[in-house]
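Researcher: Sequence recovery benchmark, item below. Answer with residues only.
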């Protein structure tokens, strides 16, 4: 099912045959804020490359915290794609790590100034009995121009997109091969 903006939406998992995919890839960011929109661009390319892959759902989101947590409910494995500004790596550097390893829980779209961090939201959801993902990996692109009104990426971010796509596809391949038959 698609929402009014043409994005794939989760369906009611209680109906046979409508069970959501066990794997979700979410491109985070804002596509009109320059390099901040790189998560969306990567998610679109991953979706294109996967084609009709029935074990992976791909989506884009602009919000973190509670809104993002709600989107992750009922998935076993999630990959979040986002720009990040740590200042420790050159712009365009690609890193991948478990969400739990995020040293600054308020970085990127995993939090909101009007909300809570994604990790706090997930702990709260779990304490209430919600089915939160067993594993969440982050694929991050070091960026600097995260607040410039533009639909264009800076050259280092544009150049990093193929590497980010391959990183996401590699993570998906590992989890799908490892969990074959468990989903």
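Model:
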């Amino acid at each position: 099912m698609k929402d009014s903006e043409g994005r794939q939406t989760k369906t009611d998992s209680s109906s046979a045959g409508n069970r959501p995919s066990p794997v979700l890839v979410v491109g985070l960011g804002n596509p009109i804020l320059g390099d901040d929109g790189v998560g969306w661009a990567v998610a679109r390319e991953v979706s294109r490359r996967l084609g009709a892959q029935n074990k992976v759902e791909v989506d884009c989101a602009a919000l973190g915290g509670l809104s993002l947590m709600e989107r992750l409910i009922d998935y076993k494995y999630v990959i979040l794609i986002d720009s990040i500004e740590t200042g420790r790596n050159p712009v365009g550097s690609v890193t991948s790590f478990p969400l739990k390893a995020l040293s600054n829980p308020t970085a990127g779209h995993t939090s909101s100034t009007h909300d809570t961090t994604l990790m706090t939201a997930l702990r709260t959801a779990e304490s209430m009995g919600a089915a939160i993902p067993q594993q969440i990996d982050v694929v991050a692109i070091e960026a600097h121009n995260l607040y410039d009104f533009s639909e264009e990426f800076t050259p280092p971010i544009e150049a990093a997109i193929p590497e980010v796509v391959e990183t996401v596809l590699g993570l998906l391949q590992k989890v799908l091969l490892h969990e074959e038959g468990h989903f």
